[in-house]
From TrEMBL:
Pfam families linked to this entry: NIPSNAP
Name under which the protein is recorded: NIPSNAP domain-containing protein
SUPFAM superfamilies, A to Z: Dimeric alpha+beta barrel
InterPro entries on file: Dimeric_a/b-barrel, NIPSNAP
Record domain NIPSNAP: where: 8-99
Length: 111
């Protein structure tokens, strides 16, 4: 499994547009075989940082989603929403893997 972590710098004055963008992508990622874990919006602290997490069974499944989403009309509409409203200033994407209990080292320092 691979989990994608997105950190967004958003326009705090356009939070409603970003919320709509997020709602669309939760549904779309799930439709393409992923599991969306949600969008996390500013509450306390930075007013212009938001996060999203979603997972796919593996990197190949994620790459297939990326390829398929490029020609999907609903995906393109969601991208247009962000571009036209300017609700997203920039974003960073990270790929994470869960810690599997079987891969934990024995002995040494524990967390």
């Amino acid at each position: 499994m691979i989990t994608i972590h997105l950190k967004y710098e958003i326009d705090a004055d356009k939070i409603e547009d970003f919320e709509e963008y997020g709602r669309r992508w939760v549904r779309l990622v799930n439709r393409f075989g992923g599991t969306h874990h949600g969008y996390f919006l500013p509450s306390e602290g930075d007013s212009d940082i938001a996060y999203a997490l979603f997972s796919f069974p593996g990197l190949a499944a994620y790459e297939q989603y990326r390829t398929d989403s490029m020609s999907d009309p609903e995906c393109q509409e969601a991208i247009r929403l962000a571009r036209d409203t300017g609700c997203i200033r920039r974003y960073e994407r990270r790929f994470l893997r869960p810690l599997d209990g079987a891969s934990q080292p024995t002995g040494g320092v524990t967390g």
